[in-house]
Amino acid sequence: MINKKQIKILTLDDEVEYTQTLFHILSNSGYAVKTSNSPIEAFEMMKNESFDVVITDLMMPTIDGIQVLKHIKEYYPKTQVIIITGYGTIENAVEAIKKGALTYFIKGHDPENLLQEIENIKSMKEEGVLKNLDNEKQFSEVNGFLLETKSKVFAKTLEIAQKAAKSNVNILILGESGVGKEVFARFIHDSSRRSSGSFVPINCHSFSESLLESELFGHEKGAFTGAAATRIGRFETADGGTLFLDEIGDTSLDTQVKLLRVLESKSIQKVGSNASKKLDFRLVSATNQNLQEEITLGNFREDFFYRISSIVIRIPPLRARKEDLESLIAFFMKKAQKEQMIKISNMEPEVKNFLLQYDYPGNVRELKNIIERLVVLSEDGVITKDTLPICTNYEKKLVESRGFEIKPLKDIRKDFEIEYIQKVLHACSGNLTEAARHLAISRRQLFNKVSDYGLK
Ligand SMILES: Nc1ncnc2c1ncn2[C@@H]1O[C@H](COP(=O)(O)OP(=O)(O)OP(=O)(O)O)[C@@H](O)[C@H]1O
């Protein structure tokens, strides 16, 4: 049974009072309601939050209700639209229904009718009548991330993560930068018994040693200059949930000792306090460093390493799961279009080839960034190959990732010829006659090539 609070409604009208009236009617009936007085603002809100219903006025100055409806049907097909109209514009409202609005409501009529429509949407959702629309979503997203895979190695990694999530042990996630270590940490939290608690991420690299400790442990008022008030640390915020320490390889040996003590005693003392507090959190850490090597170099404590790594999850780089590129490209394309409010109708084949061939040293993050830029640079809904160099330095990257440059055969022949003639000339101490004899061409022909190619 869905409760009314789970039905999220956005009301949009350029008349502030009318949105307020609707806000009171709907929120007093128990629904979760937000309001907006401009379509642009409403579009921004929809990017960050999904709504079950948008109730929009038909007549608005710059962007009218029909345009709002079109936008919603294109980018948020799951959202139902109810059109608000005055008597004079009922015909337009009927037109809106033909274009996909669920129904219309006439201003000034008994709000009970509107509430009944929303109640209908709630029941449709309960009965799964709207499920087909839900299924229009192409991807099985987990909290906005794409975790479906065709890659055996990635599927295995996900399986380990899921199993590890069910346990209560500390987990260490390894992998190159941008592979999705934080995405995995969140996935583990969401799949665990702790999912109703907080997921608290902290990047150890972003803080100096003393700031990191104060950030993690919190401090008492007056514990040090500037500590004007008592502050709760991240350990405490993560109580009952998951603490994610990113770039754990960047913590100092001193901090490692303090963290180890917390993990062993399962309690903390705020900076400036003698009282200790028992805590219950799971630690997920991540790094792109080779911690074994850091242990050998004396930069990482072995006892700490064993404490944080009861289970180690290694996320493969993107180049090791190229079978997922197609769906990741489509996923980020869809996301970028929604975020940039740009509709892409075509992508030139060269762009697609590049996206499928490139090796992505920056992993998923790099793929996501490239696609965002391609969408922004598109012209009239088309992503052309001209935009690739601007956004990726693409020829160079392609050559680097492939290990060689693809050129027309005649250019390759020429490159080879230049290199070879140079070698032969060198071997013959620059004597043209002798070199020509070895190359089985006339002295005249060799002379022409030397001057054409600018050889000495
Ligand atoms: N499976 C995925 N689905 C959608 N987006 C993803 C996925 N994996 C990674 N990303 C995106 O790629 C970017 C990098 O991911 P994340 O920060 O988790 O990587 P990381 O390995 O922790 O990187 P770093 O080592 O730099 O901290 C983020 O913007 C994230 O949203």
Automatic annotation (TrEMBL):
UniProt entry tagged with the keyword tRNA processing: no
4-aspartylphosphate modifications at: 57
Domain annotation Sigma-54 factor interaction: ranges: 147-376
Pfam family, one: Response_reg
GO molecular function: DNA binding
SMART domains recorded: AAA, REC
InterPro entries documented for this protein: AAA+_ATPase (IPR003593), AAA_lid_NorR (IPR058031), CheY-like_superfamily (IPR011006), Homeodomain-like_sf (IPR009057), HTH_Fis (IPR002197), P-loop_NTPase (IPR027417), Sig_transdc_resp-reg_receiver (IPR001789), Sigma_54_int (IPR002078)
Keyword Nucleotide-binding found: yes
Highest taxon in the source lineage: Bacteria
Record domain Response regulatory: where: 8-122
Protein keywords: ATP-binding, DNA-binding, Nucleotide-binding, Phosphoprotein, Transcription, Transcription regulation
UniProt-recorded name of the protein: DNA-binding NtrC family response regulator
